[in-house]
């Protein structure tokens, strides 16, 4: 249950204060409520397509409601768990994520969608192990840096074990393939290493090696090279109807939206022109229907959420709670970094990647893990407040 803090007023009467960050909760709730409107708007016309002919117009809305319901229940349970417990089980959560990443590649276990084997069917939803891996790497990297504080200046002791773990995850994710998830996981791990105080030159060397690995992956993959070329020149006839098809129609959607949009439900691009409008390109539908104003509100909400995670993390570190602080900042990197990449892809600022908009895009396991991760951050803030009032975390 939430901690109840009390302070005395000038009249000598106690005044009750909230023991948790209500603004953080309401921002998350508002984003998920907004997502219900936008997912419904973006998916309502999908049954007109032969691919989704058997679905009802409310199919994706219903599944998204179920996913949000499961996520909220999971978050309410998670926020009851002490941060010390997460610190203790961090390596096991990470190992579980690795096991599931291996399992999803097994024929008969993993589900193939659009040529990618990324999901494990669970009836209520299709679970994506890479989402658990993002949560797991944040826990593991924070726990790892706390245990390796004395070795921050030694490259072999401080960086090599994490590099091996990232390399293993990378191989599994590229086999799915899911390069977008690998980029986010690598960003979380490297960000926590940097915030944990790893030697600057060692950090830059690690980043250079990682960037080199990405360049090699693109160089040896014709499919990825074509995506880069399409991103650089999306209106070329060679790419406009092929690799840049999603990007060009996303840009058209933003162009139609102008300042205030065409109105909720009035998007034309969602009518089978823009593929995956309810998942990866939900922001384009927001831009077309709600205009620049809607896009700016979304950007502002994710900026605030990311900044709040970092502030909670910095506060925890100031209270000598290193694991909690690094974890909270790692979640800030996850939410902010993935939102930045998704928005950049939608706006044509980054090459097309299969990454959803956190808390908003359709996708059960993504919403579930986002809520669980943020529930742990809320618990960290709750314990911070309790410690500052002289209590015990």
From TrEMBL:
Species this protein is from: Roseateles paludis
EC number(s) from the headed UniProt entry: 2.4.99.28
Keyword Mitochondrion: no
Gene designation: ftsW
Cell division among keywords: yes
Role, per record: Peptidoglycan polymerase that is essential for cell division.
Chemical reaction(s) catalysed: [GlcNAc-(1->4)-Mur2Ac(oyl-L-Ala-gamma-D-Glu-L-Lys-D-Ala-D-Ala)](n)-di-trans,octa-cis-undecaprenyl diphosphate + beta-D-GlcNAc-(1->4)-Mur2Ac(oyl-L-Ala-gamma-D-Glu-L-Lys-D-Ala-D-Ala)-di-trans,octa-cis-undecaprenyl diphosphate = [GlcNAc-(1->4)-Mur2Ac(oyl-L-Ala-gamma-D-Glu-L-Lys-D-Ala-D-Ala)](n+1)-di-trans,octa-cis-undecaprenyl diphosphate + di-trans,octa-cis-undecaprenyl diphosphate + H(+)
Listed name of the protein: Probable peptidoglycan glycosyltransferase FtsW
TM stretches of this protein: 24-46, 66-83, 89-109, 155-173, 179-196, 203-221, 281-305, 326-345, 357-378
InterPro entries: FtsW (IPR013437), FtsW/RodA (IPR001182)
Lineage, opening ranks: Bacteria, Pseudomonadati, Pseudomonadota, Betaproteobacteria, Burkholderiales
Highest taxon listed in the record's lineage: Bacteria
HAMAP family for the chain: PGT_FtsW_proteobact
Pathway assigned in UniProt: Cell wall biogenesis; peptidoglycan biosynthesis
Membrane topology: Multi-pass membrane protein
Annotated family: Belongs to the SEDS family. FtsW subfamily.
Subcellular location: Cell inner membrane; Cell membrane
Keywords: Cell cycle, Cell division, Cell inner membrane, Cell membrane, Cell shape, Cell wall biogenesis/degradation, Glycosyltransferase, Membrane, Peptidoglycan synthesis, Transferase, Transmembrane, Transmembrane helix
Enzyme class per UniProt: transferase
């Amino acid at each position: 249950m939430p901690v109840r803090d009390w302070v005395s007023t000038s009249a000598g009467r106690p005044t009750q204060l909230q023991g948790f960050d209500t603004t953080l909760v309401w921002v998350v709730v508002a984003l998920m409520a907004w997502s219900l409107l936008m997912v419904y708007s973006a998916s309502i016309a999908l049954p007109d397509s032969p691919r989704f002919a058997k679905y009802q117009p409310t199919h994706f809305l219903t599944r998204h409601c179920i996913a949000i319901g499961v996520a909220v229940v999971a978050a309410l349970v998670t926020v009851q768990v002490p941060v010390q417990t997460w610190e203790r089980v961090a390596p096991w959560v990470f190992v579980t994520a690795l096991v599931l990443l291996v399992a999803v590649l097994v024929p008969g276990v993993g589900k193939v969608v659009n040529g990618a084997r990324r999901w494990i069917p669970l009836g209520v939803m299709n679970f994506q192990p890479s989402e658990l891996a993002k949560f797991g790497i944040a826990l593991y990297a924070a726990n790892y840096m706390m245990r390796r504080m004395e070795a921050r200046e030694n490259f072999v002791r401080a960086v090599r074990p994490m590099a091996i773990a990232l390399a293993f995850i990378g191989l599994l994710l590229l086999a799915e393939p899911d390069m977008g998830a690998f980029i986010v996981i690598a960003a979380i791990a490297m960000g926590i290493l940097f915030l944990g105080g790893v030697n600057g030159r060692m950090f830059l060397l690690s980043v250079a090696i990682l960037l080199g690995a990405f360049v090699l992956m693109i160089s040896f993959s014709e499919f990825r090279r074509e995506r880069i070329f399409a991103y650089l020149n999306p209106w070329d006839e060679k790419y406009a109807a092929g690799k840049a098809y999603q990007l060009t129609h996303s840009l058209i959607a933003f162009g139609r939206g102008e300042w205030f949009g065409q109105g909720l439900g009035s998007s034309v691009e969602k009518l089978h022109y823009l593929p995956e409008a309810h998942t990866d390109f939900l922001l384009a539908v927001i831009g077309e229907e709600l205009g620049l104003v809607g896009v700016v509100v979304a950007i502002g909400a994710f900026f605030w959420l990311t900044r709040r995670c970092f502030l909670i993390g910095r506060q925890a570190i100031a209270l000598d709670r290193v694991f909690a602080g690094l974890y909270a900042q790692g979640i800030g990197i996850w939410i902010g970094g993935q939102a930045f990449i998704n928005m950049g892809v939608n706006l044509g600022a980054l090459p097309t990647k299969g990454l959803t908009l956190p808390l908003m895009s359709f996708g059960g396991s993504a919403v579930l893990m986002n809520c669980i991760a943020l529930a742990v951050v809320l618990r960290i803030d709750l314990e911070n407040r309790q410690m500052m009032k002289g209590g015990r975390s």
